Amino acid sequence: SEKWGAKVIAHGYCSIPSLLLRAQRRLHLNPTQLAVLLQIIDHWWDAGRKPYPSKKELSSRLGIGERQVQRYLTELEQEGLLTRHERYGEFGGRLSNTYDLQGLVDKLAAIEPDYKEARETARKKKQEAGAPGWRPKKKPKPESVTPD
To answer: What predicted TM-score, i.e. pTM, was given to this entire model?
Structure first.
């Protein structure tokens, strides 16, 4: 709440890995596809419970048609970022799909080493150039030795 303010946080928040935002282009996500994914992630409250926002809700939040949402979901599924699973009610009625985001999680984990390496390379270049903002890693303080 220190960053966003109590009134804003009172409406909830979700955790988004920075790597998802940094790797948008590498994951072949156009801005609207990313927005659809972020809206689904906003419904992913527990690791063991897949999100299930309706296409109508996604459409309303994004200001695009339900058919467009459907197309973006198909594209995300073709990219291997999500898997849709049909959901049915107690008496067989169709409910909104659940969305399994394990594909996205796996892809982010697979590309993470590249981003880590790039970050370390950039840090070394800054260090070598003596660039402002470069901070050396803190060295552990030597243990104090007391004479006997």
So the answer is: 0.80
